Amino acid sequence: MVRAATLAAALMIGLTLAVAPLNPATLHQPWEAPRLNLLLGADEFGRNALLVLMVASGRSLASGGLLASLAILVALVFAAAMVRVRGTAATLITQALVVVESIPVFVWILIIFVATRERLTSGITILFLIAVTPFAANILRGEFLRLLDQPFIHVARMAGMSWSRIMLRHVLPNASSVALPLFAQLLGLGLAIPGAIGILGFTNRTDLDLGVMLFRGKENVVDHPLLLISTIGGILLIYACILQVTRRENWSPEVTQTRAG
Amino acid sequence: MRLAREAGLALASAFGSYALAFWLMQILPDSAIATLGFGAADAEVRAGLIQDRSLWAGVGGLLQGDLGTTLDGTPVTAELGGALLASLPRLAAAIALVLATIGTVCAAPRPALAFIARASGFLLFVPPFVFPFFGLALLLQFSAIDTPLQAVLTIACLALPPAALVAAQAAGIMARYLESAFAISVRARGASLARQRWLLLPAVGLELLSTLEKLLIGLLTSLLFVEPILGQSGFGALLLRAIRRSDLDLCLAIVLFLALLVNTGRLVGNAARERLGGSTW
Known about the structure:
heterodimer, A: 261 residues, mainly alpha, MetI-like fold, 11 helices, elongated, B: 281 residues, 13 helices, flat
């Protein structure tokens, strides 16, 4: 209950910060030193560094969460299709996914980005989905196959339950123990994309995004290491929050198993 | 027969990756951008990208051992060979560090295994370019550019993400095996904890080997960021340069090399998985 409340609060704060306006006007001197009412000091644009970090964390959490959710949804559909179809079609789908999976995700993302020279959200969403779906679908497929071989699924089959109903009522809920850690991993990837694109040399440094902040942190690491350290702190906080949500004991697959069994 | 079939599929997958990269770099900027609703690509970039060459011409060249030329006019084979030679010692040292990590995790006390798994989870969540960022900070702080410290930091940054991956896996596998019937019976016969772990080590290694392609992908991703950020020449720096400049021949050759390497890792992993299927662990 406490964890659910923490999650709800974190999401609310994240979403609020995601849409919060941030006055881009210079309110402080660039790189103003930290003080009591300016805890992390000011960044190179004269913005309150703490506020920038909070807004960037909220936006990155919201966009990364959205990307990861979409990727999981697409991967679930692919994994279900791979489990359902058999024979040549199954081999073809598996091979098609292996083709994409043979190259590191970041290499695909950077190649597609350079090929399209596009920084629109839709573009990033599409390239993220193309790059991560095979990897996610393969993991989910393995879990689906393991679950479909469990006794409670056999019982459900013998009770006359249809394939789609078994998938929706029993396999999908029980696959959450794999899907949720996978979600966390994909969220991490989603956070990293803007920074990776920055390394390629296409970043707008005023963007409020943790990936871009990491990149700026690297550029100013000697004179202003606090920027990089505080951004890592922001990522650590997001990870701690995600970890709480995706811990296996927070989900009770036994409930559906008992119902079926 | 089965091995030949799997090798054939791996080769087909590698060429599939090559063809997909070719399509992305040549066709997408031309017409698909408009279809997908993206903004128009820069005309000059497109002109540079769309070279007068078909996929089959590229494959034909490959079969004759010709990987093409870079935008600078250098043969791709020479560029790739030089970069690989530069990266090889670093990769070997990083792999040695990863193996040392496996040994350390397997020898760690049981309560530490859960902590290792959690800490590794965070290291895997953090973007892979953060480690070289810290490495760069240390280099600049101690004015250690062009010193042995730079080489040491490069290797450490390179090894960290794959080491985190295998540490998380090894911790989970060892914790599971310590509860297995085999471990319990060995314990009942009076084997010390160190002896139990020693006996379990080959099985842990085999299970880790079954995910070799993931380890290779982690290592290559790390290489992509570490070398350019820490100013080292090599395969990673070449790959980033090829992508940044949309150097078609170089990009395609690198994609093919990566795909061949990862698919070889997958073949080894499949063989290990098959071996595991018949084991009693």
